[in-house]
Amino acid sequence: MPTGVKNVLIINLLIMLVSGWALFNMYTETGAEVLIAFATWSLFGTLAFAQVVLLSRMRKAWGMLRALIYVVALLQALTTMVLTKDFFSLWGALIFFGSLFVVIYLIGLRGYLNSDGFKQWLLKLQ
After folding, report:
1. Which terms are listed as keywords in the entry (predicted)?
2. Which sequence spans correspond to the domains of the chain?
């Protein structure tokens, strides 16, 4: 397994842990906004699907994963725009920049999934 895939698996797991914590807090402590809750669930599900695809090297799901990551990146960008209303508080700024990091990471992840090195590893016979 290439180092890039290992890095992606670790970063995905960290983002899944943070989004899982955020979902838990959304439903236990606040009445969460529907868009933010939907975007967080979509992010969590997409990254879980990416973990399964990468760990099992599912060649046929690779194209769907790239499209799904693109859609979730757009949804996260929309969520980032919604989060600008809380930008001037410390917690709001942290959430805003965290969401912005996730958008940039998803765009980079999609680029990595399109790279020649990843394609060679994915399509290599086991």
Report:
1. Membrane, Transmembrane, Transmembrane helix
2. 3-123
